[in-house]
Each structure stands twice: as structure tokens, then as C-alpha cells.
Design goal:
- The chain has 75 residues and is of the alpha+beta class.
- The protein has one domain (2-68).
- It is 21% helix and 28% strand.
- The protein has a three-stranded antiparallel beta sheet, with no helix packed on it.
- A hairpin with a 3-residue loop joins strand 2 (16-20) and strand 3.
- It starts with a strand and ends in a 7-residue tail after the last strand.
- Mean pLDDT is 45; it is low at 11-32 and 50-75.
Length: 75
């Protein structure tokens, strides 16, 4: 279970994250291939975040957190 906090503008288009290894990533949404998003994901990886592939990505409205790999919320 990995919980990542992201700015709201990223939450608006980020539907699914899949990062395997240091900087290998793919993601799906209305901005697939967005260079700015890739730079932000790269910065997160360099800061030590590990984001695992998840079938379910849910966003809590209250705390704006991305929950990857599980189908329930954490606050």
C-alpha cells in the first residue's frame, strides 16, 4: 500500500500510475505522454518514492491523495 500526495492539477488527469524500476513509467489519462508529468514523476522517483502498479487508483476529495494498488481510502 503506497499513498502519494500530489498537487490537484495532477490529480485531475492522472488516472493510473505504473512505475517499475528507477524511472520506468507509464500512465493513462487525457495527457498520456505529457513531458511535464514525466518530469514530475522523475522528480518523485529521485526523492525516493516507489509507486507500484495498481488496478485501482482512488482519490480522496478531502485530503487529495492518490491511493495506488488498493481499493480503499486512507486519510
Amino acid at each position: 500500500m503506497i499513498v502519494i500526495s500530489l498537487p490537484e492539477e495532477q490529480l485531475n488527469f492522472l488516472v493510473r500510475l505504473n512505475i517499475q524500476g528507477p524511472l520506468h513509467y507509464s500512465y493513462f489519462g487525457d495527457r498520456v505522454g505529457d513531458d511535464k508529468a514525466k518530469q514530475q514523476l522523475r522528480a518523485m522517483a529521485e526523492q525516493g518514492y516507489v509507486i507500484f502498479d495498481g488496478m485501482d487508483v482512488k482519490i480522496t476529495e478531502k485530503v487529495k491523495k492518490l491511493v495506488v494498488g488498493k481499493s480503499f481510502f486512507h486519510e
